[in-house]
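A further point concerns the way the authors explain their paired sequence and structure data. Each protein is reduced to its one-letter sequence and a matching series of backbone shape codes. An entry of this sort, consisting of the sequence and the corresponding backbone structure tokens, reads as follows:
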Amino acid sequence: MAQHTRNTRLLGSKLRTLRKTHGLTLEELSARCIQLDAGRAPSVSYLSMIEGGKRVPSAELLALFATVFQRDPDWFLDANQAAEAPAASERAGGAPPVPFEPAFLFSRELLQAAIPELLAQTGTSGRQFAHLLIRSHQEISRNDYPDLERAAEEVGDRRFPLSAEDLIALCRHHGLELRWFDRPPVLARDRDTELRSMLRSFYDAPDVVYVNSALRADPARLKFDLASHIAHKVLHGGDGLRSAHATGGQVGDSPHGPSAGLSPDDVLHAWRDFECSFFAGALLCPKVPFRRFLAREEHRIEAGEKIHLTPAVMMRRMTKVSPYPYWHFFDAYPPGYLRAVYRGNGIPLPWGNMAQVTDPCPHWAVFRMLERQGGPDRRSQISVLREGEQFLLYVCHSRQTEDMAGNPHVLSVGVDMVPALRARTADADRLVDSIAQACLQNHGEARVPDEAALAIRAAAKVLNIGWIPEALEQPARIICPRSTNCPRHEPCAGPGTSRAREIAELQREIVGGAKRVRRAAA
């Protein structure tokens, strides 16, 4: 009897640890089981009793758990196999931190003097710099803003989905008057470029929102604009200190003028734009019901079309509400600007929103989709990226689209697969290396080897992301942040070969030559 009790508790403990490793609540695990077999799926209370060692699951229920977590049923019964503890990520969100040494050069007073000078000399606008700060804040904090989440949930009462009529009613409830106007796309200036732009909506303090009539035919965009203006009224009392909603622009949501340097308004407007955008996403996609929706739809971006959510809202919001934290999101405009970036998985950037680089790697999915003329407008891709002596593995889903002014751009959302593979097998690094070697031996792209493909499919089922297996139908590709550092045996097309030398290389040659002379003399 004592042995039976011990085995029951061990099984429950392993199930609980496995569930928490994958970031699932009891309710979410129950829902996943219902998706597979509603007749045998356990209730939340019964799951709790199993995890507490008070109930023993039947063989059928054990098989259900095995399917959800892609384990052999015997694994749950094997007392010799320990359950994995939740593993901390080896890759923090965003770029690697830089030590501020010597510390006296990074004092507040010096930074306050040096940053405006740096921006003025490089032609960087205050808005660009503010968005860079906000992006880093997002990535370091893993996009976690509970106060904004709570405020949005209080306004929307966690209703999901909300219709355009619901948003209009919420505007009225918060004292906002909607005034419609007609204005076609115009040519707008965005620093040193001109682009087609459409003024979608803007806030006129204290309680008027002007909305372009074209949004009547586009409920998904209309809902987002209204939600963000409700955010401004709720969060900031409708003082009007925020940007208009317009299409295009290399940074943020709207084109803006060529103002280099830094002003307080730049930072204030950028932060408020971010707050209102985050609030809008939380209002339209409250965490718990949207997480259930993603689970039912296997994180497919197209599912948003059924409930009038834009692909951008779907992608941005899933990086926040998914139980898996290792996501990235890009919004790219040609010829090579990232208008929006989120790197919760720390993926290196191929290019950024400050300036277009001269040697971008052409094999990133988002870059390939920007260059593509015709063909499918959405695609999933498995990518291998070398960082130092190790290879990283990413899977993304990219989609070609147009903004309201008709400008083409590409939205891309993806995950770092290494943590998911490591949660399943100790051979994760070897499997990733096998994919990299297959690509390197075949001009930079190759079908994923069978063993690695099997592990990726199993991990995708646990993550419940439907576009990961779809990526296996295409060859995996070697990517790199810059084409000049391409690890392929035959480097991809980039700038012509240069005879330029690095000073550090010259130093090593001189020191090495001197050592050889001394050894010969000795």
Q: What stands out?
A: The chain has three domains: 2-77, 120-289, 324-485.
